[in-house]
Amino acid sequence: MLLKPKPADVFVDRHNGPDDMAVAEMLRTIGVESIDQLIDQTVPAAIRLKKPLNLPAALTERAFLAKFKKIAGQNKLFKNYIGLGYHDTQLPAVIQRNILENPGWYTAYTPYQAEIAQGRLEALINYQTMVIDLTGLEIANASLLDEGTAAAETLHMFHSLSKKKSATKYFVSELVLPQTIDVLRTRATPLGIELVIGDHRTADLTDESLFGAILQYPAADGQVFDYSDFISKAHEQGQFVTVATDLLALTLLTPPGEMGADACVGNSQRFGVPMGYGGPHAGFLATKDQFKRVIPGRIIGQSIDAAGNKAYRMALQTREQHIRREKATSNICTAQVLLSVLAGMYAVYHGPQRIRQFATNIHALARTLEMALHGLGVEQTNEFYFDTLNLRLESAELQQALRKEAEAAGINFRYFDTVRVGISLHQNTEIEDVAAIVDVFAKVLGKEVQDALALPAEVEATWTENLIRTSDYLTHPIFNTHHSEHEMLRYMKQLENKDLSLAHSMISLGSCTMKLNATAEMIPVTWPEIGGLHPFAPREQAQGYAEIFKDLEQWLCEVTGFAAVSLQPNSGAQGEYAGLLAIKGYHDARGDQHRNVALIPASAHGTNPASAVMAGMTVVVVKSTEDGNIDVVDLKAKAAQYADTLSCLMVTYPSTHGVYEETIIDICQTIHNHGGRVYMDGANMNAQVGLTSPATIGADVCHLNLHKTFCIPHGGGGPGVGPIGVVADLAPYLPGHVLVDADGRTFGAVTSAPWGSASILPISYAYINMMGGEGLTQATRIAILNANYIKAKLEEHYPVLYTGSNGRCAHEMILDCRQFKKAGIEVEDIAKRLMDYGFHAPTVSFPVAGTLMVEPTESESKEELDRFIEAMIAIRMEVAEVEAGRADAKDNVLKHAPHTAATVLVHEWTRPYSREQAVYPTEYARMFKFWPTVSRIDSAYGDRNLICACTPIEQYVDAEEQLVPTDKGPSY
């Protein structure tokens, strides 16, 4: 017997759902003989790549993890006391294992279908409550991307709200974190806003051109100021004031809200989230109630369901950029949901007393360190401080000697102003660490430490009485109940059980690419070598990260065909913005500042026009044809009309309608002929990789959603990563960073950290490593196969709105449900009914109202696709019952969906369909039932009665029982 050895454990076979037998069956259903034939009928020949991707050979999971262990081992884990908004912390193991490492949490989608996302929504309400309580303000959103971008969002918000329409200046304290100032400058410049950077103690607030200000509390150098007078004077001048702050410090310090601040921003990283070389971390934004209708980002609010029970959902303004488009004040489409859940759970687990104790211990250690260094003759200049000492040395030479000795001892401080040293202590600092710091100073100064250090039994706070916090916080029972690990474990599991994720069934959201997030890809994320680095540590300590960045940038250049890539943008919307800034920087450098028109197709993602406006551009909409393509005649006419001022075209490819537009090369050439550049939205790269590329179609820049095509999990709505690739002449305008020389780039930062969400880049690094070029190409081919299989099975039941010239769709399709309105059935009814079948709805009413956009991805097996197809056909039959008059137009199984256990367990069942039809419509649903925990939610009620913080249950029920009958039926 001859035996033929070959790799038996190939990762691509784990990633792609259909096996060879399933592929053959699917091809027969579609009516083609091979995948090659299907691809030839789907992807225009003119844009096909002429050669395969030049990427490293695919590795097995075991080989990759062994390789990556060596790469990560190049990172050096120093004791970091750099501060500047990033601090070592401890994520409780019970939260790490049961949320961060749990696919039930990290593979869920943004909670647009709230009935099957009640767990995550409650976790986000907890986060909002935590931020509201600690900042002393009245409303907060469910997280932003980081501190710098949160600060920039308040700049935009208050600029748009200012009654002084000619005011174009914004005061920025020179003690705001330097990376925040960097992001503020980037965001302000395109809008013609001037930053006035100076000392808040001497600022002239009577300047009529000022519309607002931002302060840091505690300041970047550690000082703690009372800003009450500054805020009062600013308000007298009609100005808004934002205070950037530290949530842990606010357990001891008077909160900014009590000083009169209009908004409070910051980073919740030190609530248990590893530093991760800069991210991802959940930024926060809290503000006054009067701004609740304009606050950017997602707000989670309470409402009621069809039975009158409390239920959570996202508030109206959540996707305001998709509603208002170019009139939107923000382009935010994502958040840092998974990270805000971690920070909120940190507060739930520890509670107010333990968190305050962490802060007390840190301050006590800082006081102890100050006294010990004072004994060595070191001057500490901060009169009032929380965790940070500001030390003045005698010379630059002494500072350099200190740095050398500290790094030899595995310690990082902050060095600035040639003779200054900053030391920021944190939750993980022990008295032994303080002693080690003192020893370093003693060696450099040539002195001896006289006495062994010990933590004192009590210390006096450095700040004055008016800065001592007296108000309560985290008083809700949720923060005072789950302090034992057993109770915490059960609470998190209860919430997890309320959410549908990829652990339950496929999530076929068009344009959102909910694909496998392989366990092997996720494993390195929680390694200390990945999570333990400070983003501003010396680069020689992060050689492992340097190798990851270099390889990943090179591989993404190969995939896109571009010359350079920036990994800094930490969301797709940030990538859009950074890409447009690169185009703007190019035009400005050539003296073409007048080129400010962005042509955007009517079908584009809503973030596109919002990003263009933020980049200082004027949006001109290009029409779509009846078949969903860009109207080339209209595009050419407008390109000619605006030839002198044309900056760029923003285009999504394949189109948002799920079609490879055959005119794309002509479209891009038209823009170039009129002096513009082409920005390609990379949302649909899952249908390009290995078959075509942005450079091949003629694009100059694109962003890539690593949380879509390259397997970083959506995490319930974040984290995301949105790096951008550019052609060679745009490369000088990629984002840089004020604190880190990112390969010589000096253009303004778009995020707080130099490499954005660095700690989750290993996920995409692993995916590309284990797939290889051939595997990535095969993934694209299978994604197209799966989509066309669903199309072939469903098109006799639901019209497919757009297809290519050969009747094929790309990786997604749009099912038209508008004809059901005649029978009183809305697309929302179908979306809610899918929950009873155990599925999350496809994308609802985007890009066309009344439709479902379906994207199966390559990761789903034929068996799972068939289950989804069975559910969709069964729902079509239920719609037919209504159309034929056999089911009542209002009292039917679709209008009442979803059905909870409480709904069907009533003693007397009065509905005109059976309980079994309600909850067990298929055999699979009977065997593997996922139960929604609330009935259909009344979103309008929630927007009229906005409640976005934890409310005692008894208070909520008492109020609502007077308004809502116990079983009012569906909400029409």
TrEMBL record:
<dbReference type="InterPro" id="IPR015421">
    <property type="entry name" value="PyrdxlP-dep_Trfase_major"/>
</dbReference>
<feature type="domain" description="Glycine dehydrogenase C-terminal">
    <location>
        <begin position="779"/>
        <end position="899"/>
    </location>
</feature>
<dbReference type="GO" id="GO:0019464">
    <property type="term" value="P:glycine decarboxylation via glycine cleavage system"/>
</dbReference>
<dbReference type="GO" id="GO:0030170">
    <property type="term" value="F:pyridoxal phosphate binding"/>
</dbReference>
<dbReference type="InterPro" id="IPR015422">
    <property type="entry name" value="PyrdxlP-dep_Trfase_small"/>
</dbReference>
<dbReference type="GO" id="GO:0005960">
    <property type="term" value="C:glycine cleavage complex"/>
</dbReference>
<dbReference type="Pfam" id="PF21478">
    <property type="entry name" value="GcvP2_C"/>
</dbReference>
<keyword id="KW-0560">Oxidoreductase</keyword>
<dbReference type="InterPro" id="IPR020581">
    <property type="entry name" value="GDC_P"/>
</dbReference>
<dbReference type="InterPro" id="IPR049316">
    <property type="entry name" value="GDC-P_C"/>
</dbReference>
<feature type="domain" description="Glycine cleavage system P-protein N-terminal">
    <location>
        <begin position="477"/>
        <end position="739"/>
    </location>
</feature>
<protein>
    <recommendedName>
        <fullName>Glycine dehydrogenase (decarboxylating)</fullName>
        <ecNumber>1.4.4.2</ecNumber>
    </recommendedName>
</protein>
<comment type="similarity">
    <text>Belongs to the GcvP family.</text>
</comment>
<feature type="domain" description="Glycine cleavage system P-protein N-terminal">
    <location>
        <begin position="13"/>
        <end position="441"/>
    </location>
</feature>
<dbReference type="GO" id="GO:0005829">
    <property type="term" value="C:cytosol"/>
</dbReference>
<comment type="function">
    <text>The glycine cleavage system catalyzes the degradation of glycine. The P protein binds the alpha-amino group of glycine through its pyridoxal phosphate cofactor; CO(2) is released and the remaining methylamine moiety is then transferred to the lipoamide cofactor of the H protein.</text>
</comment>
<dbReference type="InterPro" id="IPR015424">
    <property type="entry name" value="PyrdxlP-dep_Trfase"/>
</dbReference>
<comment type="subunit">
    <text>The glycine cleavage system is composed of four proteins: P, T, L and H.</text>
</comment>
<dbReference type="Pfam" id="PF02347">
    <property type="entry name" value="GDC-P"/>
</dbReference>
<dbReference type="GO" id="GO:0004375">
    <property type="term" value="F:glycine dehydrogenase (decarboxylating) activity"/>
</dbReference>
<keyword id="KW-0663">Pyridoxal phosphate</keyword>
<dbReference type="InterPro" id="IPR003437">
    <property type="entry name" value="GcvP"/>
</dbReference>
<feature type="modified residue" description="N6-(pyridoxal phosphate)lysine">
    <location>
        <position position="708"/>
    </location>
</feature>
<dbReference type="InterPro" id="IPR049315">
    <property type="entry name" value="GDC-P_N"/>
</dbReference>
<dbReference type="GO" id="GO:0016594">
    <property type="term" value="F:glycine binding"/>
</dbReference>
